Amino acid sequence: MDARTRFDDLGEAISALVDAKLLEAQTSIPCTVVSVDYAKQTVVLQPTVKARIRQPDGSQKWIDLPQIPDVPLHFPSGGGATMTFPVKKGDEALGVFSGRNQDVWQQQSGDQSQADLRPHDASNAFAFVGFKSNPKALTNVSQSSTQIRSDDGKQVIDLHPTNGVTLTSEGVSMKVSKDGVDFTGGYIKHNGKRIDDTHVHTGVQPGGGLSSVPA
Fold first, then answer.
1. Rounded to whole angstroms, how far apart are CA atoms 42 and 36?
2. 91 with 85: CB under 8 angstroms?
3. Where are the alpha helices (H) located in 127-211, listed in sequence order?
4. Could you confirm whether domain 27-131 is CATH 3.40.120.10?
5. What is the pLDDT of residues 151-174, one digit of tens each?
6. Is the dihedral of CA 85, 91, 97, 100 positive or negative?
7. Most CB atoms closer than 10 Å: which of 31, 161, 178, 209?
8. Residue 46 has pLDDT above 60, yes or no
9. Do the domains spanning 27-131 and 142-203 agree at the CATH topology level?
10. Domain 142-203, classified CATH 2.20.220, yes or no
């Protein structure tokens, strides 16, 4: 119990009660993904901030908060197109708690009445993946272009506002810009045939004849 509720001061007592109710209101909490349902685009979340409870002997103990099931998963989307990600168990996420119950909307879509009044309840969660704790922060994040990349940086699609688009895969890259296409490392194949400075043609004849297909 808050000691302020024992003071002979109505203002302090009211402040204590308001603070106590605010502690019950959940807005967002860091989580990890426990499992993913790709058919429904939902996840099970495990909050990663523990709760402190008082033991019968007066001591305090930190415990895990309950898992949150059936949480809608956010994929950036609009205009009939969606960007999806291979969300996996253990991925870090932010659980955001809606101010109102969204169960009927989640099941049926569209404008719906609330099934019950439970503001900022844990069961009102939405999952936003992609937030990184310090130990899992990405390295070599571009400060000048937009990228879709693997976390290890070996696979990158880079969109630069003036220099074009570059695709990189473990040392092999292809850059597309207003100057053309520049390919470095590896080689290009067409119908199983290499197209580079090493390919040769068979049936070459002097004069104006055409060669056959590449060997």
1. 6
2. no
3. none
4. no
5. 999 999 999 999 999 999 988 999
6. positive
7. 31
8. yes
9. no
10. yes
Which residues are CB-contacts of 17 (< 8 A; sequence separation ≥ 6)? 5
Please give the Cα distance from 75 to 91 (Å, whole number). Answer: 14
In this predicted model, what pLDDT tens digit does every residue of 12-31 receive, in sequence order?
777 777 666 656 667 889 99
pLDDT given at position 92: 97
What are residue 8's phi and psi, to 5 degrees? -85, 55
At 57-68, the pLDDT tens digits run 878 888 888 999
- The answer to whether residue 6 scores a pLDDT higher than 70 is no
pTM (2 decimals)?
0.71
The CA distance from 107 to 165, in Å, is 40
Contact 113, 105 (CB under 8 A): no
Token couple for 153? 């940086």
Give the whole-number percent of the chain exceeding pLDDT 90. Answer: 45
Residue type, 62: W
> For 90-168, where are the alpha helices, taking DSSP H only?
103-108
The one-letter code for the residue type at 120 is H
Average pLDDT, the chain: 82
Biggest distance spanned by C-alpha atoms of the chain: 110
Buried b (16+ CB within 10 A) or exposed e, 139-173: eeeeeebebebeeeeeebebeeeeebebebeeeeb
Q: Buried b / exposed e across 5-17, counting CB within 10 Å, b at 16+?
A: eeeeeeeeeeebe
* 114 CA to centre of own chain: 28
Q: How far apart are CA 70 and CA 101, in angstroms?
A: 13
CA distance linking residue 212 with residue 24, whole number of Å: 78
